[in-house]
Design goal:
This protein has 4 domains: 46 residues; 93 residues, no CATH class; 89 residues; 166 residues, Secreted effector protein pipB2 fold (2-Layer Sandwich). By secondary structure, the chain is an alpha+beta fold. Helix content is 55%, strand content 17%. α12 packs antiparallel against α15.
Length: 459
């Protein structure tokens, strides 16, 4: 191409020189020739630059789609904590390397610019934990002088902190006191023992530890119920019940993180659960379970639902469906309904049905006061509300503003009292009833199985 242009310039030059009308116009000849030569030089330069770019591009290393996706996730996680990598594209460039430097500096780790396996896994888990805790994460970041870096430092401290030292017995310390050993008693909430003027053991307040233990127990048990419902996810309302459990788990985790942050700020030490293995009886499990809230319409009264399994004097597996309250100074259980296994199943089915009706009401925009009984038991007592008859109804409610609710209505003759709860709480109650039904049934069978039944089991 370059040779062709030179030949073309030569021919044009000879043509112009041999033609009088053009040869006399030197300025025109010179201008045309200059433009053509300049164009040739420019095109030659562009061609060289393009060839150079193509050569550089061909030498750029390629990465697999899996590695690119993994890198993109790392970039997204770094961006979440404020270490800006730019637009996550899965390619580690200068901005990503600088972000890694800042991340490692935040944790006081060697600043290599590349993440090792521990740092990558820690970053991934920290992002999940922070996102799961929602508003509690934002609250902590807002209060922390180091912002998101402070949150990472807390997570890192929780992960790497050594197990708390065991508090020596007070009597031993009192009898072996030396010039370098002192026993200090702080406030009623915190006891600090100083040994050899170098080791401080902080004892977390008993009420804080008790609350943390209770929430940790509830979390573990709710995770067991989640696994139980997942096994039965093909049943009616299985996915909706799982959603209700997931939401409750998120709330519990937020409460636990709130205590962890508070303890870390006040005591400078991580808090750990002290309760033992949750391989416990059905009765104990019912006490640990995070109870479902209810309210009595038209009043300020509210409380929690508690299903307690037991064996009646007649040898029948039964469940006390308790309505508890904290507002009473003497009687914590305000009302009680005795259920059998079939009743728990009816309760579960009724709450799932109400959830479906609620979805329909919301879709249709119904704004009229309305109620409909989803389930009533026992059947023989549901026909007439007269003296001598008692029944339990699971009722669906719509209010004038379009909101919906569930109600557990206790009928005693012509007297009726309703305990209302949200539709979402109704689904959680359905999952609770299903789990307690299975747990109680297994325990009852284990204690009452005959040799013949066991023979069939191990046939």
């Amino acid at each position: 191409m370059k040779i062709f242009k030179l030949i073309f310039v030569g021919l044009l030059s000879s043509l112009l020189i041999s033609t009088p009308s053009y040869s006399n116009n030197k300025e025109l000849f010179t201008g045309v020739l200059g433009v053509m030569i300049g164009s040739a030089i420019a095109n030659s330069g562009n061609s060289t630059e393009a060839n150079s770019n193509n050569q550089i591009k061909s030498n750029k290393p390629s990465i697999s789609s899996a590695e690119r996706a993994d890198n993109k996730r790392v970039q997204e996680n770094l961006n979440y904590f404020g270490f800006n990598t730019g637009n996550p594209d899965g390619v580690f460039g200068r901005k990503t390397t600088e972000a890694v430097y800042r991340f490692q500096g935040c944790l006081n780790r060697p600043m290599t610019g590349g993440l090792d396996n521990f740092e990558k896994q820690f970053l991934e888990q920290s992002t999940f934990k922070a996102q799961m805790n929602g508003n509690q994460t934002l609250k902590f970041v807002a209060q922390s002088p180091n912002g998101y870096c402070g949150l990472l430092q807390k997570y890192f401290l929780d992960l790497t902190a050594p197990e708390p030292a065991v508090q020596p017995a007070t009597t031993d310390v009192a009898t072996t006191t030396t010039n370098n050993t002192a026993l200090q008693v702080a406030s009623s909430t915190t006891n600090v023992i100083s040994v050899d003027n170098s080791v401080n053991v902080n004892i977390i307040a008993a009420d804080v530890q008790a609350k943390f233990d209770r929430l940790s127990g509830e979390l573990v048990l709710l995770q067991q119920i989640e696994a139980h419902i997942k096994e039965k996810s093909d049943q009616s309302g299985g996915k909706k019940k799982l959603k209700a459990i997931t939401e409750r788990l998120a709330i519990l985790r937020s409460l636990i993180v709130e205590i962890e942050v508070k303890v870390d700020q006040e005591y400078g030490t991580p808090v750990r659960p002290t309760n033992g293995n949750l391989g416990i009886t059905a009765v104990k499990a019912s006490e640990v379970f995070p109870r479902v809230p209810y309210y009595i319409p038209g009043t300020s009264e509210e409380g929690e639902l508690w299903i307690k399994p037991y064996v009646s004097d007649g040898g029948v597996l039964s469940y006390d469906f308790n309505f508890t309250t904290r507002q009473s100074e003497f009687e914590k259980i305000q009302d009680k309904i005795v259920f059998v296994t079939e009743n728990l199943t009816s309760l579960e089915q009724g709450m799932v049905k109400i959830n479906g009706w609620s979805d329909t009401a919301q879709e249709k925009g119904v704004r009229k006061r309305y109620e409909k009984v989803a389930v009533c038991f026992p059947d023989t007592q549901c026909q007439e509300k007269i003296e001598g008859n008692s029944s339990t109804e699971i009722v669906f409610l719509i209010y004038e503003d379009g909101s919906t609710a569930a109600s557990i209505r206790r009928n005693k003759g012509r007297f009726a009292k309703g305990y209302n709860l949200s539709v979402e709480s109704g689904l959680l109650l359905a999952a609770y009833a299903s789990y307690m039904n299975e747990l109680g049934s297994k325990e009852f069978f284990a204690a009452t199985a005959t040799d013949a039944e066991l023979d069939d089991m191990f046939n």
